[in-house]
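#struct-help
A.M.: can someone run this one for me? Single chain, 464 residues.
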Amino acid sequence: MRPSSPSYIADFDSATGMLRATSNYLHGQDFPALGKGHAMGWFVQSANLLPQAAREQVYAIGGVTEGHAPGKLDQVDAEKVAEWITARYPQRRYQAVMIGSASGALTHLSAAFDIPWLPQTFFVPVRHLSGDNDDPVDAMEFGRRYGPRLLEANPDLQLHHMHDGNQDRLMVEYMDYFRVKRLTLGRAYERFLEANLEAGGTILVTECQRKWPTTRIGERHFFQHGALGGATEEEFLHGSERVEEYLERYDSSVRRWPSPEPDGESPEAEWGFEEALRDDILRFAARRGYKVKRLVFTEPDDISPLVADFYRDWYRERGLKANRVLVESFIMLEPYWALRTGSVPFWMKFNMDPSVDTIESYLDSRDPFDEINLMLFNNGVEAVGFPQIDRWKQVLERARKQGQFIGVSEDLHPRDFGSLGRYYIETRQKIKARYPLPGPLPLQRLIDYTYRHRGKYEAELLDA
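D.P.: on it. Structure tokens below:
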């Protein structure tokens, strides 16, 4: 039985969810209820029976129950986190190991090539019961007070304290987002590589180069106001008509956020890659005789078109029709059932306007699909840049034969918290096709594919 995560690690986060989806697949398993099992899936579905305000409160309180006490941040242990991460994977020889930034598209590369992914970033939710979701200055000062406890106990971590009163409005009412990035591999990652990466194997460094305006608090401590999604960096810093309308609709005491003045740019808290880790990987690889490749991209979903096209070509080589696409959203993804149903996987980073733009752009530029199956993550907020359900329906209408939502209650979105359990059930029920799981591909197939299509994608596979 795989170990439980340390108590200070968030369950409902990109890195944790994608780690669980990847490791489950490498164990030959699917990903019910974000990896938390069937019981949790039925529990979250029962939340939909509550009135809207009560559903929002349940969601917010569910987040704060994960929060760690700010006075105990010195208990966070980066090596224990790394030990938990590596223990989730089957202990066997691999041709390659991915390390670095998160992206849901990477889970499908892991599945195709049977390779683990080790995240650079993880999320420590910190209780802040007296906070204000529309006061980033107060959040920054909270981090200035308590962040050093975490950093002093973990000299190989860098803290990116993020406050997003837009998409994360419900969550930041009661907690703060402390995201930390590894600056070195550390003992647990090194031991895993030595024990499981085959001689002369490849370390594939996944590098999201997205940056964000930040305020430096200390040597390894940055504050980030805002996050990737529907609102722009400019709107978080200086407001807009859209921000004013949003804050008025949520009965806020302000009409623009009092943003701290940035003094530079840093790797984006959730997705961005801190280059110090690459330097340590190169040092380690040179000593052990491993090869190093870099998968470089700007937006976390820049890899999605590459992975989708790769899968479509792979399916055709296997004699499959490749006429079905499974559009995934944030941590609602299913690498196991994508392969079992012969679905081309296309991952979107969230449920906001830029994600609709991304999938529409992809469908505009490819041969049409007979079937489009679409998941939508529910975060409980009609935030700045939130597309109404009718726009998602227009995506489904692009299917030549059938377009359908997977795990989505149209009337309740984005407060359909039961979707966190229902997406898995409906993936199996609504997509009828079944195929055997294929064996793993050699990594050279990916290298050759990216070389043949150099310049076509916003993601590049480079030599280190």
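A.M.: thanks! The radius of gyration is 21 Å.
D.P.: also worth noting: Residues 136-153 form the longest helix (18 residues).
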